Amino acid sequence: MTKRQEKSVPMSSPEINEEDRQAVLEVLDTRYLSMGPKIEQFEQTIREFTGSQYAIAVNSGTAGLHLCIRAAGVEQGDIVITTPFSFISSTNVILFEKAIPVFVDIDPISGNMDPKQVEQAINDLKNGGAAAAKWIPRRGGEKPGAVKAVLSVDVFGQPADYDPIEKICEKNNLALIEDSCEALGATYKGRKAGTLGTYGVFAFYPNKQITTGEGGIIITDDEKAAAFMQALRNQGRAPGDAWLQHTYLGYNYRLDEMSAALGLSQLKRLDHMLQTRAQVAQWYETYLQEFDLIQTPHILPTTTQMSWFVYVIRVDASLDRDEFARRMIANGIPVRPYFLPIHLQPYLMEQFGYQPGDYPVSEDLGNRGLALPFSSVMSEEQVMAVCEGIRKSL
Ligand SMILES: *Cc1c(COP(=O)(O)O)cnc(C)c1O
Description:
By secondary structure, the protein is an alpha/beta fold. It has helices spanning 18-28, 37-50, 61-71, 89-96, 115-127, 129-133, 162-171, 223-233, 257-267, 270-287, 321-330, 346-352, 360-368, 380-393, and strands at residues 54-58, 79-82, 100-103, 147-153, 175-179, 187-188, 191-192, 199-203, 216-220, 294-295, 303-305, 311-315, 336-337, 369-372. The site of pyridoxal-5'-phosphate (PLP) has 14 residues, from helix 3 and helix 4.
């Protein structure tokens, strides 16, 4: 289906072409449907693209983040500093290990973790006592362990402010996990997203910049960690283990060959997809100018290359975002509140006693953010149709 034939505007859409289809079909004629040459090629291509020493393909971005948490040695009761303004999995992987996520609030412009608060939290937690207590959740953090890692998220395709975050992590000997699942191809002061921490993770769900259906990949320069994560994704088989020998508690986090072949084919067009996404964002920026009650995304000067993942507007505080969203949907335009802050998800409130008001900047952005339809195959007419929907709904 070409862009022109599409009648309604979808929330997101992968861009699949004939070459992608052939790439997947060819795998089906080989004897390798898993653990074959496509995975290796996919990993090599990502290594070349990022300049990282190691790349480990896995079957989701969440699986990749989980392996980073394991590689960082995060265990029960340990603390990981992270952001509540993210997709749920960046916190879930901490909870998988029964560790304690300590949230810090975000920069109101980018929506990324505020480095000053990261530093404050780490120093306070080191000093203990009342200063430390104000960072620990009301419940479920009775005997907090050491701070083990910082997990930062490149929200909506824009890298966080890594210079200060890296410095803090280095000074305190902490692993830095970069959740770059939304930021493949972005750069921070010329450096590629995903390479800014000890570990970086990209994801390939169909709404991401490139897709493998389900899938993700970890990059790192740490040889030992890479070997450990390779073992964990493959049921804990260490190098040299026989098929039924398992050195570690592992998982089946392997990516299959069809998915890797699709990813390889998609990667060839990454530049093109990033450009077309940037073009769609530019159309939005232009056509949204006329609406005083709508704020468009802000790109920081440190973001030398934006990798547009979603297009999230902020509605004016005087506007009822949820009512506006209902009207948009009634007008045939799909929209989605983005993000619902993680600390206010029911099971986190239950387990840790979080309350509204705990992270006011995250909550403010969460209350005003609305993702508009966005993909690399959107036409200018579709962008105009969305903006017409906005006019009607306001
Ligand atoms: C997409 C995404 C992930 C990973 O999602 P999967 O569906 O597991 O691939 C992780 N973190 C963020 C911020 C994401 O946007």
